[in-house]
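subagent[fold] <- orchestrator: predict structure for attached chain, return tokens only, no commentary.
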Amino acid sequence: MRSSFKKLDTSIQNHLERILETLNSEGKTADRELLASHWLEKERIFNREISSIGLKEVNKVNNISEGFLALTFSGSLLALGPLRNGKRSAVYVSIGLRSDVPERSETDNAVINGPVIKGSEIFFNKGPVVKTSPVHKLAVFKKNTNVSDKQKLLENTTETITRELQTLNETMLET
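subagent[fold] -> orchestrator:
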């Protein structure tokens, strides 16, 4: 049977290797195969949830004011809400293992600095974090979804994914 780590894209393998180096230098022990299998499960959860609410996967967010969900190379989640009354919410949920990023951070007044493109980091002028890891998956709403529905769907989906990611993180720390 092929290892979980070998099933990952090379860019994600490299990113996870850097995370493992950081964890090991902090005196934490982490297993590469376990980290990879959890990452694959996070991707499966992300795919299932975006499909269940009718989001479509894209390579680039063309209209940033519409909001989106992103899964990063490290397995973190970013939900950026649609622009409402000149502001937008943003929630960042990390992989829960790293000490250099918050486990969860959110703001009601997020400002993106630059484009949002698959394979690139997302930078914020104001946000839950200064920047994310490179984006592995991006999902946006299909046309004709009203703003309040988008916000509610993003909130609910973010909470569902967050609960499942936190459960995965806890089981990884226990092993």
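orchestrator: received. Logging for downstream: Residues 4-174 form one domain. The CA atoms of residues 96 and 169 lie 6 Å apart.
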